[in-house]
From TrEMBL, chain A:
Keyword field: ATP-binding, Kinase, Nucleotide-binding, Phosphoprotein, Serine/threonine-protein kinase, Transferase
Similarity remark: Belongs to the protein kinase superfamily. CMGC Ser/Thr protein kinase family. CDC2/CDKX subfamily.
Keyword ATP-binding: yes
Name the UniProt record assigns to this protein: Serine/threonine-protein kinase crk1
High-level lineage: Eukaryota, Fungi, Dikarya, Ascomycota, Pezizomycotina
Origin: domain of life: Eukaryota
Organism: Trematosphaeria pertusa
UniProt-listed SUPFAM superfamilies: Protein kinase-like (PK-like)
From TrEMBL, chain B:
Gene Ontology molecular function: any one: cyclin-dependent protein serine/threonine kinase activator activity
Main location: nucleus
Compositional bias segments (type: Low complexity): 22-39, 335-347
Cited PANTHER family: CDK-ACTIVATING KINASE ASSEMBLY FACTOR MAT1
Listed name of the protein: RNA polymerase II transcription factor B subunit 3
Keywords assigned: Kinase, Metal-binding, Nucleus, Transferase, Zinc, Zinc-finger
Provenance organism: Trematosphaeria pertusa
Gene Ontology BP annotations: nucleotide-excision repair; regulation of transcription by RNA polymerase II
Amino acid sequence: MTFSPVLSPRPNPPGTKMATNATAAKAKALAILNNSRAVPSPSVASTPGDGGLDLAEQMNDEVRRRFVSGTRLGEGTYAIVYSGHYRHDPSKLVAIKKIKLNADFKDGIAMDAIREIKFLSELSHPNIIQLHAVFSTKDQNISLVLEHLPLGDLEMLWKNHSISYGGADIKSWANMLCQAVWFCHENYVLHRDIKGNNLLISADGTVKLADFGLARSFADPGRDMTCNVITRFYRPPELLLGCRHYGGCVDVWSTGCVIAELAIREFFLPSETDIQQLSVICDVFGIPTEETWPGVSKLRHYEASFGAAAPKHPHGINYWKQRFPLLGEDGIDLLRGMLRMDPMKRLSATQVLQHPYWTNAPRPTKKENLPKQGGGEKTMGEDLKRRGGEIETGRLDKVARKLDFGAMKK
Amino acid sequence: MSKSARAPGASSKRLAEDGGASPLSHSLHSLSLQHSSPSKPARSPAVADPSSDICPVCKSSRYLNPNMRFLVNPECYHKMCESCVDRIFSHGPAPCPIAGCKRTLRKAKFRRQTFEDLKVEREVDIRRRVARAMNKQESDFETLKDYNDYLETVEEITWNLILKIDVENTERRLRLWEETQKAERDPNAPRRLAEPDPSLPSDTSHVVLKKGATQRKALAASSGNTPDPFGTSDDADKDAGFVFHGLKKYVPPEPEKPFNPFGGWGIEPKYYVFQKDYDVDWLTRQKNDPGHLVGGYDMQDFYSRCLREAFGGLGIFIEDEIIARENQASGDAGVGTRSAATAAAGGKDVDMSDVF
């Protein structure tokens, strides 16, 4: 664990003010370390003198007492989200995400929560949601104290047709998103669930990447990873074809889809099933062959998907120019670079940020001038409660929601 | 400022004390519309005058022509009907047809009057023009007193123009002021010779119908690249029209820095040199495994992560950090965006350094 951005080879934030400033999440971890050291004698640690609480419980209580949780903003099968604030200063708002006890993980914490805590406490970047603290409550539920992001998400933004925006605004949002992805990858974290409604907007208009419930660190060579991640519309072809070894390029595909979505104000590659998703992708990008994507025919689902299919060819540049007029020539070039079928040819997150699109005119809109909407706390609750990989528009979702008695009551 | 310019200010003060009938409005009456035609005496604005429905030029009345519209020209504010304007001024500038008024009018400047009282109309026009030139704000001045002095001067100029006192000089200074202001804001803009605004009433306005060759030459000489004798050497020896005490010097905004797509963040290894490839036995199998290559699994990511994790803790001194953290425990925490966010949300910055 590294705490010093000054000397650490971890990415250094701009300016020097961060240098002396241990960030919250890290400070939390540090504080545990620090506190256990600062506790003067082993007597406190060993003898539960005050009410039979051991040190860990005392520390947990202390964290819990720092926050006041307020109204319930949303409830899903996975978590309940409350608004809240610091006890000593009610103007410091937070969102408290209380993970529900899960039937699958009777003797522990849900995987999603573990991942979220693990990676959010490591990552500190203006475009990644901030984890202020973690505590557990009496009923053994774990609660994450997250940054308060009241202005809705990117998907709501493009769906809301009363808001109009242009190329510079898209560039600004896309850049914040790409910075977040780059920062994750630079710290060897795969997000694996990048989509419009995981990109929340803070009060000042900054886009923040949230929901690290499906995140993992880059795998060691030879270790299999699951290919059943990432919400379907944003899932890259190598995952649909059952590839077990992948890298940051999966997030780059999802990022490209989000940018495309912003530019056309509808889902770029919508589909009903995983198989249909693959054909939707191939309608645009053609069916991959050994020439266009070396080794693709060895992938698990390749034969089943394309064994007998007639060859399809990718759309030419004119298709892109017609469909994405808001991005401009260089924007289309970047988008096509991010959405290449062969992951080895796809741009990496660093290459994405090095693309001339960002520095060419028009200059990205300053975040204080970006079009905003009042998504309000309600959507923040809706977004944070979701489990990774869920799509809400499915017919079955509705059925499941009916069985959710907690939601029925409200 | 001329002494007489003070008079309206003084009289208005008296007016406020009296709280009643206005010597000011009387003086206005006599002054502002001194060219009104003798056939049409100054009307009281409150009374609906049947004569207002008769065009003073062609004498046609609303009875004969229900769609009649009256227009005025800000040059002399004489009313006439639309058809007269069309008839007289369609072929270019012509003198005002009202007897006693010698001004040359242009059709383009004719407009419908906004206020029933033409004196008000004229005063609003003048105030608009003065406000366009004298557009300083309180923040542009060192002290409130300086700002108030400035406002007083502005009011003086306005009344000078309204009451036609020292108009020529005031106009000249106003134009000079406008020019210097413009030059200060945009030093690269081509210098134009201050041209009299034809929309403004000035006693001596002598309208040149067509620019003569000599005039054009003079214009070109002063606006061209040739350095004019006293213009570019700037403020010190140049008459800026007005001098205001305590006016801050205009500081042009800093040019924007080029956009940094990485948001200013960067990383470079300090304690090691990163190679493209590392030749180790236990990795050769994965390195050549098509299953790894096809999915975009990048061995370099693995190498750099191993190195980063191996060297990550070097040069980290936790004691120093704890001291630094405690020193700024109550200080401003956090990234700029977050403080901006909470500020925008109406809250204060979240201090996250004190989890315990």
